[in-house]
Structure formats: structure tokens, C-alpha cells
Amino acid sequence: DGKPSLSGVWEIPYVPDMAKSGRAQPGSTPAQIGPGALPFTAWGAQEFKNYDPAKFDYTAHCLPMGWTRQMNTPMPIEIMQEPNRIAILFEAWQTFKVIPTDGRSHPQNPDPTWMGNSVGHWEGDTLVVDSVGFNDKTRLDTIGHPHSDQMHVVERLTRTDPMHIAYEVTITDPKAYTAPFTNKRIFTLKPEWELMEYSCEENNKDFYEGHVK
Questions:
Q1: Alpha helices, DSSP H only, in 4-104?
Q2: Among 59, 81, 171, 132, which residue's Cα sits nearest to residue 89?
Q3: Taking the CA of residue 176 as centre, how many other CA atoms within 13 Å lie in the half-sphere pointing to its CB?
């Protein structure tokens, strides 16, 4: 169809802290962005301060990671591309996301979900994925940056050469952050890899008996 293929198994970099490779959008205050800092609102700063995964990390209870944290894992993904939709299969949590690229828009009042509602379109050779309709039960990354149900995620995937995808994600959430911010990274094709089985077990004794914090 004249579009580059994104299909394949891709090694994606582990991003436990989106602030360390994030950059501010034009118009935001430069001092608000830097290593370890994102442009918090008062609500967002308090949410981040209160987060203590040693007391409760939802992923340790096998709850869904959420869209952004899923893309930040150190485990590979597989992209399956068809003319009118793209599916992303995640080794982590052994879950998936189907992204229609048939020109549809978001529903007017999407039910809030863990992974949100996503639609895609092409801008030249770049796939743009637009996602809304999130619940507020997840975190952006391992370190625990918060988001609200107002979060809007825009991702751009560009096949820069046979072995790489340039990935850029922009987070907009007026409840949690005073300005949008962007994070960039590179995916590497692994033709010899296959996704492995991932099993998250509830009632994990290592967690409940304090061996894992």
C-alpha cells in the first residue's frame, strides 16, 4: 500500500524514568524539565510524592501495566501490520493492542480502560498513534510518574532503516502536568527472536512475605 512495514519483533529500551530522556514541548518553562523532573502541576507533584511501590505496586498484583508503562518495559514487542490495522503484541504481561488505521476517530465518550482507546494514521512514512480514554489506575513508568484520566498520548513510529524504528511519545495531561512533554528512543529489529511466554502469578510469596520490595 506504499507504506513502510513495521512488522517484526523489536527490542525496545527499558525506560524506568521517562523524565531522564524527556524534553519539554516548545512554550513550556525550561526549568521545569530536566533529569529526574517533569513539569508537574500541584496535583501531579503530590501524586508522585505519595507513590511508594514498596507499599503497593499494582503490577506486583498482576494488574495491567497501562499503555505507556507497557511501552517502557525491557521486554520485546511484536508488531503485526495489515492495511487497515496494526497490532502490537507485548511479551510483558502477554497482552496486545489493536490500532485501527482505517480513518476512524475516537468514540465520543470512550469507556476509561487500562490501555485506552487508540486510532492510527499515516503522515508520510510515519505511523501516528493517538490514544485517549485511560483510567487513572496506572503509572507512566516504573519510577511512578502519575497520570490522570485526562491523559492524551501521541506516538510516532518511523522506520528509519531496515533495522530500526525511531519512536517518539508525547504525553499531554493537564491535571498532572503543566505542559506536554516528549520522550524519544530507538527500537531495534530482532529477526531471530520470538516472544516468550510471560506469566504473572497472583499470591506471589516473594511479594507477600517481603522478599521483593
A1: 42-50, 67-71
A2: 81
A3: 22
Which SS3 state, helix, strand or coil, does residue 208 take? helix
For 186-203, what is the mean pLDDT?
A: 91
Give exposure, 48-75, as e/b (b: 16+ Cβ within 10 Å). beeeeeeeebbbbeeebbbbbbbbbbeb
User: 40: closest CA among 27, 58, 28?
Assistant: 28
Q: Is 124 left (phi over 0), alpha (psi -120 to 50) or beta?
A: left
- In angstroms and rounded to an integer, the radius of gyration of the C-alpha atoms of the chain is 17
Question: Cβ–Cβ contacts within 10 Å for residue 132, how many?
Answer: 19
Shortest CA distance to 43 belongs to which of 35, 51, 54?
51
Closest listed residue to residue 91, CA positions, set 77, 70, 74: 77
> Is 18:38 a contact under the CB 8 Å cutoff?
yes
pLDDT at 68 (0 to 100):
96
Is pLDDT larger for residue 168 or for residue 30? 168
Residue 22: alpha-carbon gap to chain centroid: 13
Q: Is the dihedral of CA 184, 107, 123, 26 positive or negative?
A: negative
CA distance 69 to 28: 24
What helix, strand, coil percent values describe the chain, rounded to 5? 15, 35, 50
Count the residues in the chain. Answer: 213
Q: Is the pLDDT of residue 121 over 60?
A: yes
Instruction: Give the whole-angstrom CA distance, residue 207 versus residue 213.
Output: 7
Q: Which amino acid, one-letter code, is at 109? A: N
